[in-house]
Amino acid sequence: MITGIAAGILTIIFQPLAYLFSRVYTMRGGPVLELLVYSHIIMGVFSLAVMLFFLPGFDFNSAVCLRLTGCVLTFLAGQGCYFMTVKLMEPSRLTTLLGQKLIFLVLLNMIFFNASVGFAHWIAVILCVAAAFVMNQSGGRISLKALFAVMLSCLFLAGSDIMDMLLVKAMPYQDIIQSGIAATALCYSALGLVVLPAFFFIKFDHKKAVLAIPYSISWLLAMVTLFICFGILGTVFANILQSGRALVQVILGSCVAYFGFASIEPKALKRQWLCRLTAAVMITAAVAVYVLSGDPVH
Hints:
Layout: H1 2-27, H2 32-51, H3 62-86, H4 91-97, H5 101-113, H6 119-136, H7 144-170, H8 176-195, H9 206-211, H10 213-242, H11 244-258, H12 270-292
Helix pairs in contact: 1-10, 1-11, 2-8, 2-10, 3-7, 3-8, 4-11, 5-7, 6-12, 7-8, 7-10, 8-10, 10-12, 11-12
């Protein structure tokens, strides 16, 4: 339990940094698609190197292959939607809105795992929806295009969470940390291979590849800790810890704006930051209510 909580805390530190670095990349003129390609190639190289230590005796059975395929497809879809959105709003707003993923976790678990959802669970869902409206008042209005992209991101990322947990459980190791590292390495090795053919359509640019390194490293570290967290705590309990990233991102965004990096995180009025903080707290409360009410889904 303590290991899972520690892994979750590390995740909420690394993920907001990754979101910030992705914003830096796009604001410096790097196309979203290129960041997706460069970052996954970089992470794929690191993951393949790690995977070499697990290959002797590794059992690529049908369960592993099916879950790996699910991880790759849901993650690529979620990341594609996320990168479309990151150019349309500030990271602090986007990170908080991604907390709406809880709604989709509820729905997916109801549909595919026959999970029962009680009154308290629906209160948590309502809190999530209300937080979105509060966040919408924290700056410029969110366009329908951005809102649609956020909702799609939440749907696919919720599915990705479930598939990630199932992949960790399918690893042939007793130690959950070893299983989490192996599952992450396997997943991102596959992702790197999947996006490799993209270089037939885009010209390799050394400077852009270097610019993608900070995002790649911070995101890969976040995924290692997240996979471990999922393996120990399950997707729902892990999300109560992940919700803390909204608070971290609001604080991080405030610091970035304060030091004058307006192109990354525009300066906002005190009232706007208060709205963002309120929305972040509402998201945190929503996940807390959902878990503490006795959620049967793991």
